[in-house]
Amino acid sequence: MYNTGPTTGGGSETHQFLEQLKKAMDGKYHAIHSYENMADYAPNSREQNRILEIRKDEINHYKQFSYIFTSLTGKEYTPKIDKKYPESYVKALNEAFIDEQNTTDFYLEMSDFPIYPQIRRVFRRAAADEQNHAVWFLYFLMGRQMKSSFRFNDKWYI
């Protein structure tokens, strides 16, 4: 679909794109495992189900990125995980929120590489999904915050 033959060397822009694509696959691989772990610690089934839905999106993105990499290089990539999982649910939510926000920008930058229009669409869609994921994680974080505060005379007390 994307390939006119394996890329062996190519231009520096193609090389840069492939390096960034590896970074994206590493991040997806970590997110897939991290969100599975996070879902196990979710305080209720509503949050657990949403986290597992987000994880499905991450799996889909990983498969798309992997297909692109293999199509462009003729090789498979083995992802690397060098991050540790947070030790609490709230820390995991916070890390996930920040990561999803940063990843949104990263994917938008990747969509600017002038490779193929189909690849641009994959990264733009992934960026939109990441932004949506960030909103959910922020919602869960704010729910924790609101439970530990109250409102009196239009002022919030924590």
With strands numbered from the N-terminus, the spatial order across the biggest sheet is 1-2
What is the CATH architecture annotation? Answer: Up-down Bundle
CATH class: Mainly Alpha
Helix/strand/pairing category: mainly alpha
Q: Could you say which overall geometry the principal axes of the C-alpha atoms support? A: elongated
Write down the CATH topology. Ferritin
Sheet of most strands: 2 strands, antiparallel
The amount of helix comes to: over 70%
- What's the count of strands? 2
* Uncertain stretches: 1-9
Q: Give average pLDDT, whole number.
A: 86
The N- to C-terminal Cα distance equals 55 Å
How does this structure look, described?
This protein has 158 residues and is mainly alpha-helical. It has a single domain (12-157), classed as Ferritin, core subunit, four-helix bundle (Ferritin, Up-down Bundle), CATH 1.20.1260. It has helices at residues 12-40, 45-73, 89-110, 117-147, and strands at residues 150-152, 155-157. It has a two-stranded antiparallel ribbon with strand order 1-2. β1 (150-152) and β2 form a beta hairpin. It is elongated and about 50 Å long.
